[in-house]
Amino acid sequence: MGREGPRQNHGGAPVTFAEIPTTHNPNAFFAVSLVALIANAALAAYQLRRIRARRLNPLKDELYNDTKSYQEVVEENR
Question: How far apart (Å, rounded) are the C-alpha atoms in residues 59 and 66?
């Protein structure tokens, strides 16, 4: 038996396992990108505010060691 090449559809394009229709609407791409940019900027501002308020070195100090969830994780992993 010879080796078969990849399956192709009627147009000659390769067939994938699960074809999912996508949008190519630039407005949708822009909206999602804008939301992501705003969320990332807000997170960066929050982290900078926390670093300055607690006078932390982000390369050496834990930023969230005073939070309840951080303490729970530390206790579970002892």
Answer: 17
Provide the pLDDT for residue 24: 82
Cβ(58)–Cβ(51) below 8 Å:
yes
Backbone angles phi, psi at 44, to 5 degrees: -65, -40
Q: Look-up: residue for tokens 């729970």?
A: 72
Coil, helix or strand for 5? coil
**Structure tokens given for 48:** 């900078």
Residues in contact with 7: Cβ distance below 8 Å, sequence separation at least 6, in sequence order: 14, 15
Q: Which residues, 6+ apart, have CB-to-CB distance to 6 below 8 Å?
A: 14, 15
Sign of the C-alpha dihedral computed for residues 36, 40, 45 and 47 taken in this order: positive
Predicted TM-score of the model (pTM): 0.61
Rounded Cα distance between 2 and 41, Å, is: 55
